[in-house]
UniProtKB/TrEMBL annotation:
This is Protein N-acetyltransferase, RimJ/RimL family. It comes from Acetanaerobacterium elongatum. The lineage of its organism: Bacteria, Bacillati, Bacillota, Clostridia, Eubacteriales. One of its GO terms (molecular function) is acyltransferase activity, transferring groups other than amino-acyl groups. PANTHER family: ACETYLTRANSFERASE (PTHR43792:SF13), GNAT FAMILY, PUTATIVE (AFU_ORTHOLOGUE AFUA_3G00765)-RELATED-RELATED (PTHR43792). The keyword Transferase applies. Keywords: Transferase. InterPro entries: Acyl_CoA_acyltransferase (IPR016181), GNAT_dom (IPR000182), N-acetyltransferase (IPR051531).
Amino acid sequence: MDELRVETERLLLLPMSYEFMNAMLENRPTDLEEQGYTLSEGWINLEVLNYVDILRLLMPEDRVIDGFYTWVIIEKHARRIIGDVGFKGRPNELGVVDIGYGLAPAERGKHYATEAVRALLTWVFSQSGVRRVSAECAEDNTASMRILTNMGMKQMMHDGSTIFWELKKDQFVL
Protein backbone atom coordinates (compact mmCIF):
# COMPACT_ATOMS: atom_id res chain seq x y z
CA MET A 1 0.00 0.00 0.00
CA ASP A 2 1.12 3.53 -0.74
CA GLU A 3 1.36 6.56 1.57
CA LEU A 4 -1.97 7.92 0.33
CA ARG A 5 -4.67 7.47 2.97
CA VAL A 6 -8.02 8.88 4.10
CA GLU A 7 -9.17 8.58 7.69
CA THR A 8 -12.51 9.06 9.37
CA GLU A 9 -13.51 8.57 12.99
CA ARG A 10 -13.89 4.81 12.56
CA LEU A 11 -12.29 3.99 9.23
CA LEU A 12 -8.98 3.99 7.44
CA LEU A 13 -9.10 3.97 3.63
CA LEU A 14 -5.99 2.85 1.77
CA PRO A 15 -5.60 2.59 -2.00
CA MET A 16 -5.41 -1.01 -3.17
CA SER A 17 -2.05 -1.65 -4.79
CA TYR A 18 -1.41 -3.84 -7.81
CA GLU A 19 0.43 -6.25 -5.49
CA PHE A 20 -2.56 -6.38 -3.12
CA MET A 21 -4.84 -7.21 -6.07
CA ASN A 22 -2.50 -9.99 -7.20
CA ALA A 23 -2.36 -11.45 -3.69
CA MET A 24 -6.18 -11.49 -3.52
CA LEU A 25 -6.47 -13.17 -6.91
CA GLU A 26 -3.81 -15.74 -6.03
CA ASN A 27 -5.44 -16.49 -2.65
CA ARG A 28 -2.32 -15.60 -0.69
CA PRO A 29 -1.83 -13.19 2.22
CA THR A 30 -1.80 -9.52 1.30
CA ASP A 31 0.67 -6.98 2.63
CA LEU A 32 -2.02 -5.69 5.00
CA GLU A 33 -2.61 -9.16 6.42
CA GLU A 34 1.14 -9.45 6.94
CA GLN A 35 0.91 -6.17 8.92
CA GLY A 36 -1.68 -7.71 11.26
CA TYR A 37 -4.96 -6.67 9.63
CA THR A 38 -7.61 -9.37 9.30
CA LEU A 39 -10.16 -9.89 6.54
CA SER A 40 -13.83 -9.66 7.42
CA GLU A 41 -15.49 -12.92 6.47
CA GLY A 42 -17.34 -12.82 3.19
CA TRP A 43 -15.76 -9.66 1.77
CA ILE A 44 -13.67 -11.51 -0.78
CA ASN A 45 -16.21 -13.30 -2.95
CA LEU A 46 -16.46 -14.14 -6.64
CA GLU A 47 -17.94 -10.72 -7.49
CA VAL A 48 -15.09 -8.87 -5.73
CA LEU A 49 -12.46 -11.12 -7.34
CA ASN A 50 -13.94 -10.58 -10.81
CA TYR A 51 -14.02 -6.81 -10.26
CA VAL A 52 -10.43 -6.75 -8.96
CA ASP A 53 -9.25 -8.81 -11.94
CA ILE A 54 -10.84 -6.33 -14.35
CA LEU A 55 -9.61 -3.32 -12.38
CA ARG A 56 -6.06 -4.67 -12.33
CA LEU A 57 -6.11 -4.74 -16.13
CA LEU A 58 -7.44 -1.16 -16.28
CA MET A 59 -4.66 0.25 -14.13
CA PRO A 60 -2.09 2.24 -16.08
CA GLU A 61 1.15 0.48 -16.89
CA ASP A 62 3.04 2.66 -14.41
CA ARG A 63 0.74 1.30 -11.67
CA VAL A 64 1.05 4.60 -9.83
CA ILE A 65 -1.25 4.65 -6.83
CA ASP A 66 -3.11 7.91 -7.41
CA GLY A 67 -6.38 7.15 -5.62
CA PHE A 68 -8.50 6.76 -8.76
CA TYR A 69 -8.95 3.03 -8.37
CA THR A 70 -10.11 0.87 -5.48
CA TRP A 71 -9.47 1.60 -1.82
CA VAL A 72 -9.59 -0.92 1.02
CA ILE A 73 -11.92 -0.02 3.90
CA ILE A 74 -10.42 -0.85 7.29
CA GLU A 75 -12.31 -0.63 10.58
CA LYS A 76 -9.55 1.00 12.67
CA HIS A 77 -10.38 -0.29 16.16
CA ALA A 78 -10.59 -3.96 15.14
CA ARG A 79 -7.86 -3.65 12.45
CA ARG A 80 -10.23 -5.49 10.13
CA ILE A 81 -10.56 -5.10 6.35
CA ILE A 82 -14.32 -4.80 5.89
CA GLY A 83 -14.79 -3.82 2.25
CA ASP A 84 -13.79 -1.62 -0.62
CA VAL A 85 -14.73 1.72 -2.15
CA GLY A 86 -13.30 3.44 -5.15
CA PHE A 87 -13.34 4.51 -8.73
CA LYS A 88 -13.13 2.83 -12.11
CA GLY A 89 -10.22 4.96 -13.22
CA ARG A 90 -9.01 8.49 -13.60
CA PRO A 91 -11.42 11.28 -14.59
CA ASN A 92 -12.56 11.19 -18.21
CA GLU A 93 -12.38 14.19 -20.55
CA LEU A 94 -15.53 15.61 -18.91
CA GLY A 95 -14.06 15.33 -15.41
CA VAL A 96 -16.29 12.40 -14.40
CA VAL A 97 -15.30 9.47 -12.20
CA ASP A 98 -17.56 6.55 -11.33
CA ILE A 99 -17.72 5.38 -7.71
CA GLY A 100 -18.59 1.95 -6.36
CA TYR A 101 -18.41 0.24 -2.98
CA GLY A 102 -19.06 -3.00 -1.18
CA LEU A 103 -18.89 -4.37 2.34
CA ALA A 104 -18.62 -7.81 3.87
CA PRO A 105 -22.14 -9.01 4.80
CA ALA A 106 -21.43 -8.87 8.56
CA GLU A 107 -20.40 -5.21 8.28
CA ARG A 108 -23.53 -3.92 6.57
CA GLY A 109 -26.05 -1.81 8.44
CA LYS A 110 -23.38 -0.10 10.57
CA HIS A 111 -23.12 3.00 8.33
CA TYR A 112 -19.56 2.11 7.30
CA ALA A 113 -20.39 2.46 3.60
CA THR A 114 -21.90 5.92 4.12
CA GLU A 115 -18.82 7.00 6.09
CA ALA A 116 -16.41 5.60 3.47
CA VAL A 117 -18.27 7.05 0.48
CA ARG A 118 -18.50 10.50 2.09
CA ALA A 119 -14.77 10.45 2.89
CA LEU A 120 -13.83 9.39 -0.62
CA LEU A 121 -16.15 11.97 -2.21
CA THR A 122 -14.46 14.62 -0.08
CA TRP A 123 -11.07 13.37 -1.27
CA VAL A 124 -11.98 13.08 -4.97
CA PHE A 125 -13.59 16.51 -5.17
CA SER A 126 -10.32 17.97 -3.85
CA GLN A 127 -8.47 16.50 -6.86
CA SER A 128 -7.93 18.65 -9.92
CA GLY A 129 -9.95 17.80 -12.99
CA VAL A 130 -12.84 16.13 -11.14
CA ARG A 131 -16.17 17.84 -11.82
CA ARG A 132 -18.72 15.06 -11.28
CA VAL A 133 -19.06 11.64 -9.71
CA SER A 134 -21.38 9.04 -11.19
CA ALA A 135 -22.66 5.79 -9.70
CA GLU A 136 -25.06 3.02 -10.51
CA CYS A 137 -27.00 0.56 -8.44
CA ALA A 138 -29.64 -2.08 -8.91
CA GLU A 139 -33.16 -0.75 -8.48
CA ASP A 140 -33.78 -3.24 -5.66
CA ASN A 141 -30.67 -2.24 -3.69
CA THR A 142 -32.41 0.08 -1.23
CA ALA A 143 -29.37 0.35 1.07
CA SER A 144 -27.17 1.61 -1.76
CA MET A 145 -29.91 3.96 -2.97
CA ARG A 146 -30.13 5.42 0.54
CA ILE A 147 -26.36 6.00 0.64
CA LEU A 148 -26.33 7.72 -2.75
CA THR A 149 -29.32 9.88 -1.81
CA ASN A 150 -27.67 10.83 1.49
CA MET A 151 -24.58 11.95 -0.43
CA GLY A 152 -26.75 14.33 -2.46
CA MET A 153 -26.56 12.30 -5.66
CA LYS A 154 -29.41 12.68 -8.13
CA GLN A 155 -31.00 9.93 -10.20
CA MET A 156 -30.19 10.62 -13.83
CA MET A 157 -31.53 7.57 -15.65
CA HIS A 158 -33.25 4.26 -15.03
CA ASP A 159 -32.93 1.43 -17.52
CA GLY A 160 -35.41 -0.98 -15.97
CA SER A 161 -33.03 -2.73 -13.56
CA THR A 162 -30.27 -0.21 -12.88
CA ILE A 163 -30.44 3.38 -11.64
CA PHE A 164 -27.70 5.78 -12.74
CA TRP A 165 -26.72 8.61 -10.39
CA GLU A 166 -24.65 11.79 -10.53
CA LEU A 167 -23.24 14.38 -8.18
CA LYS A 168 -21.65 17.62 -9.35
CA LYS A 169 -18.74 19.04 -7.41
CA ASP A 170 -20.57 22.25 -6.55
CA GLN A 171 -23.53 20.26 -5.18
CA PHE A 172 -21.51 18.17 -2.72
CA VAL A 173 -22.07 19.18 0.87
CA LEU A 174 -19.88 17.80 3.65
